[in-house]
Specification:
The chain is an alpha+beta fold. Helix content is about 25%, strand content about 30%. It has seven helices and 20 strands. Strands 12, 13, 14, 15, 16, 17, 18, 19 and 20 form a nine-stranded antiparallel beta sheet that branches. It has a five-stranded parallel beta sheet with strand order 3-2-1-4-7, sandwiched between helices. A four-stranded mixed beta sheet has the order 9-8-11-10, with no helix packed on it. Helix 1 (about 10-20) runs parallel beside helix 2 (about 50-65) and helix 3 (about 75-90) runs antiparallel to helix 4 (about 95-115). The longest helix has 20 residues, at about 95-115.
């Protein structure tokens, strides 16, 4: 096959490209320039897609003996990922920018251009597996549960899966990948993994958002509506948060309060006890299927609501264009805007963006 290897500048994508070459494919490496801040450099393990990363990707391609290019996707990234991130927070939701990047950039914009240029597939260093099932191609969890990235790939459709290549999916551990990189003479063998949001490399999400959406003082209220404190901008809070709450009135039981809801229109943050974070149902109308769609409108599954959360058994139902999920045991601290990924064993069924939640703990008047 003719394969376009997406080279982030990290060890995973470098080894993935090396394995594609070793498998006999015609491989071309490409690094995506997602920011026009030319002087930006990575700090420790924070951020990615910087000049330093592009240089590391080029060196890896030189070692592998494959062509290397840098493609400027900064405008698409700004419009489809960064702008979405800001607008979601402005609407009181908690977005996942890695999901949007995979959905809009790596497996949409990049894949579209790759196919236009005659490539058969895009290769990445994601830890996930593709399996030829009885009814077509299926997306499955990776062998290494600690590194499994099937959750952030849950946005991929059947058509996109047909043109993807994940060489690391069956690798038992990340240590094996690093050892292989060293044996191949790749300088990124011990490069630290990137963390946090790539376009906020200092990790100060609150400060970054304040610069773009402004900060306006508002009320912090309890579930009854009583004002218990003030804040400097509702966008800085997310459901489940405990730290950073300026509450002057202690709870009657003396226990800490948590953010239960963010109301952007009134610039209000609702807080309450930890048990009030229990969520009995989640639902959304922005959903996709990773391969074949479920044959029945109602079905049992496992649901995962965060990248590193444990999947929990649940019952899903599709009705009137909305996909709703009721877990066997309530979720803890679910926020609108999060992505819920559905599994059948190790296979990814599909995903949806959470638009509404139902609390398992009713408000006591």
């Amino acid at each position: 096959m003719k394969i376009l290897a997406a080279m982030s500048g990290g060890v995973d994508s470098a080894v993935a490209a090396a394995r594609a070459v070793e498998a006999g494919h015609e491989v071309v490496g490409v690094h995506l320039a997602l920011s026009r801040a030319g002087g930006t450099l990575r700090t420790g393990s924070r951020g990615c897609c910087t000049i330093e990363d592009a240089m590391d990707a080029r060196r890896a391609c030189d070692v592998l003996g494959i062509p290397f290019y840098v493609w400027d996707f900064s405008e698409r990234f700004r419009d489809d990922v960064i702008a979405d991130f800001v607008s979601e927070y402005q609407a009181g939701r908690t977005p996942n920018p890695c999901m949007r990047c995979n959905e809009k950039i790596k497996f949409a914009a990049l894949l579209e251009r790759a196919l236009e240029l005659g490539f058969d597939a895009v290769c990445t260093g994601h830890y996930a597996s593709l399996v030829n099932g009885p009814e077509g191609l299926e997306l499955h969890r990776a062998s290494d549960a600690a590194k499994d990235q099937s959750y952030v790939l849950g946005v991929l459709t059947a058509e996109q899966l047909a043109h993807t290549y994940f060489p690391l999916g069956s690798t038992p551990t990340k240590a094996i990948v690093r050892a292989e990189a060293a044996e191949r003479g790749l300088s990124v063998a011990q490069k630290p993994d990137s963390h946090d949001i790539c376009f906020i490399p200092d990790g100060d999400t609150r400060g970054w958002l304040a610069e773009r959406v402004g900060a306006e003082q508002g009320a912090i209220v309890d579930r009854s509506g009583a004002v218990v404190g003030t804040h400097e901008g509702a966008h800085a809070f997310t459901v489940g948060q405990r730290r950073g709450l300026s509450i002057g009135t202690p709870a009657a039981d003396g226990k800490p309060r948590f953010v239960l809801e963010v109301r952007p229109i009134s610039n209000t943050v609702v807080v309450g006890p930890k048990e009030a974070l229990a969520t009995a149902e989640i639902a959304g109308d922005r959903f996709t299927w990773a391969g074949r769609a479920p044959q029945d409108a109602a079905f049992d599954c496992h649901i995962q609501i965060r990248a590193h959360a444990e999947p929990v058994p649940a019952h899903a139902r599709l009705s009137d264009g909305e996909l709703s999920v009721v877990p066997v045991e309530p979720f803890d601290g679910v926020a609108p805007g999060q992505t819920a990924v559905l599994y059948d064993g190790t296979r990814v069924i599909g995903q949806f963006t959470i638009a509404r939640t139902v609390s398992a703990v009713p408000v006591v008047a």
